[in-house]
């Protein structure tokens, strides 16, 4: 049977074999198998009948269905969700600042650190500041303030700030109040009100490993402040892993509210975003409906004919 007739017959065929599969699963699997079939015809000279193709499609759908059922069993039996968390690259027109604070005792010997990177994951500047004795909250906020100054001095005017202290993010938002930190918070808000675009976000600590390392270096440092315009040897391993977006597992209870698992996308888990600009850019993701859910047959149409054109 010619390829064009084969495909037209497939598009008009009522898929009674696949009544047990959601239409969106059939549609997502079918183009890939069609592409493989097309390549087999061109490069290997294979010319399998449609019946064989339909059996392969059915087997693939069953395999996917079984895999998803196993995922549910694991989640329900353990009571936990496994989230794959990684540092992610910012948009091409943004820089990213990761900051962290560390206090060995709370209050105890403390330090803060941070790093600014561009959209390729390359190092722009980094710092580690020894703070003496203070609480972890003061260390975190000092890290944010020094990181903002570092980014501003480096010429960054579009900036994403990530920190793993949700309490600090809430303090900056104003949803939490702490009068003892009012002076430090006012300095941070003054920095945020400058002529630039800044987004402050909360992430899991697995996405903030480099800043955490710099903060711990600061705790043990005998120097008040250290600034690096190129990465020191101690951070190269994590820097390379972050550039490759190596993910680290994090376990959450299955009934946790508000948790989203995002696989290596724009951000891992955004709790809040603060935009201190009148024209903060944002992305619009239009909804595209490829298939009517109520239909029980698949009409692929002529848009896939090019797959079989030699």
TrEMBL record:
One of its GO terms (molecular function) is nucleic acid binding. InterPro entries: RNase_H-like, RNase_H-like_dom_plant, RNaseH-like_sf, RNaseH_domain, RNaseH_sf. Residues 91-220 form the RNase H type-1 domain. Pfam families: RVT_3. This is RNase H type-1 domain-containing protein. It comes from Erythroxylum novogranatense.
């Amino acid at each position: 049977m010619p390829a064009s007739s084969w495909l037209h017959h497939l598009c008009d065929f009522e898929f009674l074999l696949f009544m047990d599969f959601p239409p969106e699963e059939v549609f997502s699997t079918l183009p890939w198998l069609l592409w493989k079939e097309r390549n087999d015809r061109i490069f290997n000279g294979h010319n399998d009948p449609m019946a064989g193709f339909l059996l392969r499609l059915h087997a693939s759908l069953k395999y996917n269905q079984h895999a998803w059922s196993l995922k549910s069993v694991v989640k329900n039996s353990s009571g936990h969700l496994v989230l794959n968390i990684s540092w992610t690259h910012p948009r091409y027109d943004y820089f990213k600042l990761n900051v962290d604070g560390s206090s060995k005792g709370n209050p105890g010997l403390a330090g803060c650190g941070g790093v600014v990177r561009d959209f390729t994951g390359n190092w722009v500047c980094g710092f580690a500041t020894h703070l003496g004795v203070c609480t972890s909250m003061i260390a975190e906020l000092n890290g944010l303030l020094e990181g903002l100054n570092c980014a501003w001095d480096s010429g960054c005017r579009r900036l994403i700030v990530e920190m793993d202290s949700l309490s600090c993010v809430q303090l900056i938002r104003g949803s939490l109040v702490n009068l003892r930190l009012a002076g430090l918070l006012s300095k941070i808000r003054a920095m945020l009100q400058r002529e630039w675009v800044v987004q402050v976000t909360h992430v899991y600590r697995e996405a903030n490993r480099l800043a955490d390392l710099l903060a711990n270096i600061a705790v043990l440092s005998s120097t008040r402040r250290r600034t690096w315009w190129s990465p020191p040897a101690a951070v190269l391993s994590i820097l390379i892993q972050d550039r490759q977006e190596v993910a680290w597992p994090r376990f959450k209870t299955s009934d946790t509210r508000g948790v989203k698992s995002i696989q290596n996308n724009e951000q891992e888990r955004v709790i809040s975003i603060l935009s201190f600009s009148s024209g903060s850019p944002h992305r619009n993701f239009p909804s595209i409906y490829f298939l009517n859910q109520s239909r029980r047959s698949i009409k692929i149409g002529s848009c896939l004919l090019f797959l079989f054109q030699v």
